[in-house]
Amino acid sequence: MGRTVAVAGLAVLALAPAGCVRHERTLVHDLVRAAPAAEAEFSWEYLAFGSLAALPFQEKGFERELVQPFSDTHAAVRVAPQIVLRWGEPAPRLAVLDAAPYPGVAAPSAQVLLNGRAVGRLVLAEGRRRYTFALPADVQRRGGNRLRLEFAAPRLSRSPPAPAPLFARLYGLSVGAGADADLAWLGRDGAPPPVGIGQGPRARAVVQAGPSAVRFAFPAPGQAELRFTPDLHARARSAGGAAVFSVAVADGAAEREIWHRRVGAGDAAPEEVTLDLPVQSGSAATVVLRVRPDGDRRPAWGLWQGLRVMGDPAGVPVEDLPRPDAIRDEPRRREGLSEANALLVILDAAGARHFGCYGYARRTTPEIDRIAAEGVLYERAYSPAVFTRSSMASIWTSQYPDQHRVGIDEDVGISGQRATLAELLAARGVHTAGFIGNPVARGFGLDRGFDEFHSVYRQKVNLGLVTRAEAFREVLPPFFKGRPAGRMFTYVHYLEPHFPYDPPAPFNTMFGPDAPLSLQQRREKEWFWAVNEGRVAATTPEIEHLTRLYDGGLAYVDREVGFLRRTLEEAGLWDRTLVIISSDHGEGLYEHGWIGHMKQVHEEATHVPLVVRYPAGAGPAGTRVNEVVSLLDLAPTIADVLGVTVPAGAFRGRSLLAGGPGGRVVTRNTDRDPTYAVTEDRYRLLYLTTNRTEELYDVRADPAEKSDLAGAQPAWAAAHRQALQRFLLSLVPETPSPIKPLAPAELEALRALGYVQ
Predict the structure, then answer these.
(1) CA gap 468, 304 in Å, rounded
(2) Burial status of residue 301 (CB atoms within 10 A of its CB: 0-12, 13-18, 19 or more)
(3) In DSSP terms, which residues pair with 378 in a beta bridge?
(4) Which whole-number Å values give the CA distances from 753 to 246, 270, 287, 535, 742, in the listed order?
(5) Rounded-to-integer distance, Cα 410 and Cα 102, Å
(6) CA distances (Å), 138 to each of 57, 91, 131, 134, in order?
(7) Residue 166 scores a pLDDT above 50
(8) Alpha-carbon dihedral of residues 238, 267, 12, 290, nearest 10 degrees?
(9) Are strands 26-30 and 665-668 parallel, antiparallel or unpaired?
(10) According to the model, what pLDDT value does residue 322 have?
(11) Taking 90 as the threshold, does the pLDDT of residue 8 lie above it?
């Protein structure tokens, strides 16, 4: 058996060993579609607006927009967008701006200022174009420079007007030496963008202006091969240009070229090229595409048409995009679940690694361990956020925080255009009831759609008068024992083991002495904020005591989960109810220099317990699932159990009843310039957008995340980074509902829980 493979412009016969079995290759990675997340390198500075790499330089006036498939990354800009540029010595520089008027805005004009001095004026013509302006040396500074576009009031070409005050879409900015001939070509009429997606004679293509390199990083499939058709951009052909194309595979800093070819304006259109990629299945592959001028034959603008990776997709992580089984037109009744109820129990700030069923040495959760032994335990469940309000909004909408914005933007709630789980259930006649012990879990649209919603808390934390989990004993038994016939969904949200770290006796001494932390330190926020800010150094005995108190709080609420079980058993509901036990997020106990949550996205803050117990005889028992799953999967699962139809596209997650391979979970903190965590099967990437620093951990070998592998495994870091970029570009930002500012009592409740200072 054999096939023709193009290598360095020659056709050779690649013979497979006798008797080999080769599976049919299928499309695994569409690199044209993935191009907005690829990483480009030029001889000049280049910013792709709207990308992760550009975020630290987009100082103000930018707004992220959805990037449609096969479209280039960009950002919408307001009246005076400002960009930070960092240079060494001042020198004459040339800038090429890739821009278009915002839809509905005719010929917006802007004065261009560098460090407050005017250096030019732009009038954006219809459509996307490149605009050139000089940056004189005498206006520059060593170090940080600020480039600002001040738009004049636009003329509107449609009615009603475009959403004010957006003026333009900026795609990219190239800045290089004033005499750079290749850069100057990009400012000419008909020039393509430095890198992007375009249409070639045969297929969609990655457009690449040389001299440059574009890097794609991805998990390698089995029998991986790269396919593409190289050609010159039409404008380059008409100008008589010529370019040398090459493909290399990178291993760290080293690159191995596997193919190259010259394409000139007078050459016949090349045929498709097929290259076997010398990469191991399941490893991280980095493919480097280079285009450079052939001598003085400019411009060197190349097309990589139909660029894709073929192979055996087994073992390649599922892209974090809406999956077919997350969108259903008809209810999916599971055997034994047609009359089932559903109960969701949330233990606030409960990290998975502190549960006995997850291997913790202390006997913190005997009641939950028993339930886990009767159901399914998901070993790798992750939260999309490390703040209760954001996480619960994600649970109720099955959307990521970057979509719903709750807990990220101030004073906003779930969009009125976005149906919550409770609304979907109530519309189908399911009785919905919520009981919460954390005040952060109500309002902001979080209680929308519930038939009844009860706050079971008295918030005077700093006086020690906190709500104990046993307060639920007053309200849950009457509710369950007095329920009329009919299906119901119940949500119970305990505060423990959340701060204050002050469990009642005997749980305060269950795992060791009640010292050295004072009552004031464990009940008030001042001590741990001082530790987090570096004003106070926490001692080893203090952190050990803190952990004992946290574990004691978990053991205490575990007892109350046992009481809840007995309540359901006495009401005859336990074996007719699907029970889900989880957490909104985890908790840092100084493992990485931080106490609490909201800030860090390490394993201890993002890895949450997830136990699903089916009604008697209706599902598996004693099962452990090692696939990566998300809290976004809870709403689809509950709707599935209760036989409620989910509108197409309403949920991003998938029903856990559907099974199937795990996917990718992205978690963020609450900062306006966030830190993200990308979790897949083996590796977790932590990415700080403010300065583009990153950490990579092998959570199989290093679950405590002590050994940063970003330097040792650059291909995996790049693969996760580009996956994060694709994820962010795929999100549809929603318009959240405005919420009136919090009342003084509500702010005091947040302060008491350590959320605000």
Answers:
(1) 63
(2) buried
(3) 625
(4) 58, 66, 48, 20, 15
(5) 27
(6) 22, 8, 22, 12
(7) yes
(8) -30
(9) unpaired
(10) 37
(11) no
pLDDT tens-digit map of 12-27:
223 333 344 455 789 9
Work out the pLDDT band at 751, boundaries 50, 70, 90.
Answer: low
In degrees rounded to 5, what are phi and psi of residue 60? Answer: -165, 160
Give CA torsion, residues 335, 382, 547, 538, to 10 deg: -170
Between 73-87, 276-290, 404-418, 536-550, the lowest mean confidence (pLDDT) is in: 404-418
Tokens found for residue 600: 């860090």
How many CB atoms neighbour CB 160 within 10 A? 7
**pLDDT tens, position by position, 567-605:** 999 999 999 999 999 999 999 999 999 999 989 999 999
What is the H or E stretch that residue 8 is in? none
Q: Which amino acid is at 531?
A: V
The answer to whether the bond into 497 is cis (omega within 30° of 0) is yes
pLDDT band with cut points at 50, 70 and 90 for residue 157: low
* Contacts with 677 (C-beta within 8 Å, 6 or more apart), sequence order: 382, 601, 602, 606, 666, 667, 668, 684, 685, 686, 687
Residue type, 591: E
- Distance in angstroms (rounded) separating the CA atoms of residues 626 and 377: 9
d(C-alpha 359, C-alpha 609), whole Å: 12
Residue among 327, 405, 444 at smallest CA distance from 733:
405
Above 50 in pLDDT, residue 285? Answer: yes
Question: Rounded to whole angstroms, how far apart are CA atoms 217 and 724?
Answer: 12
Question: Half-sphere exposure of 459 toward its Cβ, with a 13 Å CA cutoff?
Answer: 20
Angle at 193 between CA 187 and CA 196, to 5 degrees: 175
